[in-house]
Design brief:
The protein has 66 residues and is mostly beta strands. Helix content is 0%, strand content 23%. The chain has a domain of 44 residues. Bound molecules: zinc ion.
Length: 66
């Protein structure tokens, strides 16, 4: 039985082997073929620690340089 998991974005059951992989700085992601969103692949079967707290948002707001 193929491994499946539920995409946290579109809630579709997707096959990880059919997804494009993407490597982040500290985690691996897969691109959902249904909604084309990056999905964090967790190795442990625990509830997905989703990137709901975007730690990289500060990069989008550069500090004003004097
Ligand atoms: Zn999806």
């Amino acid at each position: 039985m193929p491994r499946r998991f539920i995409c946290p974005h579109c809630h579709s059951p997707v096959d990880p082997d059919a997804m494009d992989s993407a490597a982040g700085p500290s985690a691996h992601y897969r691109i959902c073929p249904v909604c084309d969103e990056a999905v964090l692949i967790a190795l442990a079967p625990q509830p997905a620690v989703e990137a709901s707290a975007p730690s990289g948002v500060a990069a989008l707001i550069p500090e004003p340089t004097p």
